[in-house]
Amino acid sequence: MSLNLEEKKAVVAELGAELANAQTVVVAEYRGIGVVGMTALRAKARANGVYLRVLKNTLARRAVAGTPFAGLSDHLVGPLAYGISKDPVAAAKVLADFAKGNDKIVVKAGAMANFVMSAKDVSNLASMPSRDELLAKLMGTMQAPITQFVRTLNEVPTKFVRGLAAVRDKQAA
């Protein structure tokens, strides 16, 4: 079912609004995937905060024109699903992980602001930890010396109490 001009403008405006806040756009070909597979992909994308949309490439070209993702226009060929996310890794992770389990989804390209990525670059990006994971690792690294210092300080009175208990037990015997 084709869209009329007003609906097309609305789709381009909606996609443009998503691209304005996005850090990553990943494009995957979905040729031959069934409704069940596409529904599972959409559910996974929604759970990870990824905007996933299937639309005509001409509308996508109009939406990316004039944005930092304009270089992606050359890769918009064939039936494509567009994954857009604010997290730099989320869209790549969702589409690459789904493509591993489903041979009908093929990641074609991706883009970050003013940088177009090949399919290999997208898979490398997908293998990186997410922002939250990196922050957790950083906090653990920053907290480790303080935790060890507190354990060391706590060990002095503990050893003293154990020594007193040993002296008490020796005198009692």
Brief sketch in words of this structure:
This protein is α+β, with helices and mostly antiparallel strands and 173 residues long. Helix content is 58%, strand content 16%.
Describe the structure using short key phrases.
173 residues, Alpha-Beta Plaits, 2 domains, 5 strands, 16% strand, elongated
CATH topology of the largest domain: Alpha-Beta Plaits
Task: Name the poorly predicted regions.
Answer: none
> Which value, in Å, is the CA radius of gyration?
26 Å
What is the count of structural domains? 2
- Indicate the multimeric state: single chain
The largest pleated sheet is described as: 5 strands, antiparallel
Instruction: Indicate the mean pLDDT.
Output: 89
Decide which structural class fits the backbone: alpha+beta
Helix content: 55-70%
CATH architecture assignment of the largest domain: 2-Layer Sandwich
Helix and strand succession?
A: HEHEHEHEEHH
Describe the structure.
By secondary structure, the chain is an alpha+beta fold. It has two domains: 5-128, Ribosomal protein L10, N-terminal RNA-binding domain (Alpha-Beta Plaits), CATH 3.30.70; 129-173. The protein is built from six helices and five strands; from the N terminus they run αβαβαβαββαα. Strands 2-3-1-4-5 form a five-stranded antiparallel β-sheet, sandwiched between helices. Strand 4 (106-112) and strand 5 (115-118) form a beta hairpin. The longest helix has 42 residues, at 131-172. It is elongated and about 95 Å long. The model has no long low-confidence stretch (mean pLDDT 89). This is Large ribosomal subunit protein uL10. GO terms for molecular function: large ribosomal subunit rRNA binding. It comes from Sulfuriferula plumbiphila. Keywords: Ribonucleoprotein, Ribosomal protein, RNA-binding, rRNA-binding. One of its GO terms (biological process) is translation.
